[in-house]
Amino acid sequence: MCGRFLLATPPALVAEIFGLGDPIPWSDKWRPRFNIAPSQDVLMVRGTESGGGREAAWARWGLIPSWAKEADIGNRTINARSETADRKPAFRSAFKHRRCLIPADGFYEWQAPADGGKKIPHCIRIAGGHAGLREGVQSLPGLFAMAGLWERWQEEGESARVVESCTILTCDANEAIRPLHERMPVILPSDRWGRWLDDSAGVGEVKALCVPWPANRTTSYEVGTWVNSPRHDDPRCIEPREGS
Question: Going by C-beta distance under 8 Å and a sequence separation of 6 or more, which residues neighbour residue 93?
């Protein structure tokens, strides 16, 4: 699964890498995030309503289906299994029509020691998650895109507030992550971003994109327990654990 991740790449560079036609909303208030947690706003990249382009938007992490009575359902929908999302009531409409990319520089997983002690957090990084930048542009080595779904929900009553929310798709873990967890986020190489965002892609074709990222391009290391609290959101979250 994926329950925490980080995104520290500057917004202008994210826009460059993901081929966005317009600046990222609120980029003037951007700050590096080292411990993004469920129910917080996350950055997503989706196709434009007019088609043919990409845009960035902010969405609450935890998908709220359009038919939901309460927003709290999002607390249980931060992840969706890619194998069954097209059949689950909460996700099937979004899987067909509202797919997105969620940029990240890494994510966290907690490993349970064999002796039954406290779980040890690990930071997982991905190599080769994007390619094809224009000449002279460089990015952080680990920037990549997780496959996501998004939804638009409107609250009943006088407020009638509109909330956009998202979920991260998961697949079987690769050999590098399996010792930590049996699932991992679906990570898409940049040459598949366009097809993932394409509404004309069939369900079978989309599901075929949801495969584990290669283990030989996946690295992980132990970090300290500072990351355990979602209130902690600074570079200490990614510092290697002492003695590891």
Answer: 65, 66, 151
